[in-house]
Amino acid sequence: MSGNGGDTNIVIPDTFTPPPPRELRDAPKPFFPPVGVADDPSVANPLQRLKRLSTEWFGCVFELEGVLIEAREAEHRASWMKLASERGEPPVPEMVLKFASTSKPEDFIQRQLRWTRDPMETRRIAQRRAEIYREILEGPGARSVGPSLLPGVRPFLETLAGASVPMAATCGTMSFSELRATLETLDILRFFENPDSPLGEPNCVSSEDVSDWLPDPLPVERACQLMGRPPKRCVVFGDNSTIVEACVEVGAKSVLLLGRQPRYELQGADAVVGKLTDLSIANLKNLFADEVSEAAEPEREAEIFPQNVGRGAETATYEPEPETAGDDVGGREPPNYKSRRRRRDV
User: Fold this and answer.
1) DSSP letter at 234?
2) What is the pTM of this model?
């Protein structure tokens, strides 16, 4: 650079290191070889490699609202309606509000409400919405003072922890710090600890960790990455059909709980239960019982014209039908076309 007739050199210190990628959060990304669903030839321990091939090697991903705690769909809708009234916007239609609790606040503002496209303004609106949401939860007439676990959640998590099954929690309406504080308040943060994390952070995926939320499979892939499991060896627990769409995209298993949607809308899931205590470790293992390795046997193409397989097999031959002597057979002239042309010329 030059300024006032002189040259100024910008010196970059040797200790400068670029910031780590935001999406990885300082955690190494495991690359699973495309050999099979769970097989890894680089594992030197044969017992560990055999364990990967068994059905006991899997992970579980839990949605916070609707699975671990009670869904706050009414409070989410009330917060958006109050925010629209503060901004002088028209009331939000009911068909739009149904996406309020299943999408990121920033995406809901830009894609559904279409209030602004400015990232800074979107962040300010989302922060104000979070404040209104907390005021509704803590104000008079609230259903409970704080979040509480649904019946059967703690015994089910203890059963999974006893079987050494890694677990992850996701929430698209909270930040990472809010999600971690909520799990700590519920006294279940110990179930989601990640000993391999360089920063000691739990297996939590929030709205600020991914660029898009469900039904995009990014939250599921991020949770599988934190647990060290391939998506095809993970079970995702939710209470709406967006979980099924994301699981189908990456090949994961989906288990939905009744409550938010009727049963006939959840037919695409691998299992539909009323509560978590209806499941056992054996039920989760059975989800992977019919698993087939992608490298075990390549997909064979069907032969249109089968060839000789054995000595006694007959070769299929094609014999064209003889042409008749009639005129214009098959759109062609008869064999005596010269005499026919002569008759035409007369």
Assistant:
1) E
2) 0.73
